[in-house]
Predict the structure.
Amino acid sequence: MNRSLNVGVIGTGFIGPAHIEAARRTFLAEVISLADVNDEIARNKALQYGVKNHFGNYRDLLKDDKIQMVHICTPNHLHFQMSKEALEAGKHVVCEKPLAMNRREAEELVELADKKGLVNAIHFNLRYYPLARESQRMVERGELGTVFAVHGSYLQDWLFYPTDYNWRLEPDMSGESRAIADIGSHWLDMIEFIAGEEIIEVFADFATFHPIRKKPLKPVETYAGKILQPEDYQDISIKTEDYATVLLHFGNGGHGVLTVNQVAAGRKNRLYFELDGSQKAIAWDSEKPNELWIGYRDQANQTLLKDPSLLDSETRKIVSFPGGHNEGFPDTSKQLFKEVYQAVLDPSAPKNYPGFKAGLREVLLCEAILKSSKTNQWVEVN
């Protein structure tokens, strides 16, 4: 059996190189090609990342019969079309979230992937932190008892200033929701995965703290070494949320609340959750990913440090290093891709990774939350 896949990566912004690195670290794949918006950028990126082939048009990459798996790492509005064309070309697909811009597109991709019989995955990598997986195992084993309540947040500060600007601020490229769809989707996916319960109803409150942002008139690199002046910016009206708080009802009667905020000073990339059960509670912070807090009423609280010898056998499958050797963000993608590639190389391998159906689920959740923010009402997720 062939033990290595030929992989192509479309898009080389922040997350594309992370995919390239993680794919190589699985020891199950070779990244043989990349594609970007034009030939010059693609050539330079191929040289930078040591990739043999490059394409200025992603369709040329999809025509390459040697490529078996495609990673789609482009802005959100391109995910549907590129995923569809990749599947139609007979390629297995890993797609960045969101899977698509709306329910209809996401449903079409799920149906097409099933019809083609191709391996498909959405990059919900954060559930691959070892102690996030251990949390899921603890809930499944019944250690928490009944989960009464879930609360948490996803906080960042990369859009703190009104002069902070990125394509994700533009609905035509990013979608109608920003903070919820961008980072809230990771939290929602993780919580449903860990709690083993679906969110059935939501009530959302949105806020845009910077209704006008200043977009640089040239690429930021152009201004290197000089202070930008007022005439170097264009005022842009912002239509998507900087902040959201969402009340949640779960299928088992549990309650929850999520806060996302992309203008939270000092919070670089902090996903936090706490599950309060009838037997004990657990809490985890992605900025301290190798520690899991365990709370009790009648005994001392505990902190579980990541150590494979102390973890569930299923958790150990996504741990590469012994206790005291910390694992972090780059390792989550490696572990996800490892499971996806194994599913291609060995069709009998377990398929526990988040597939396109998980991507559809997040589209449905985000649409319900967006509707609630507009109507100021509870909205069912269906």
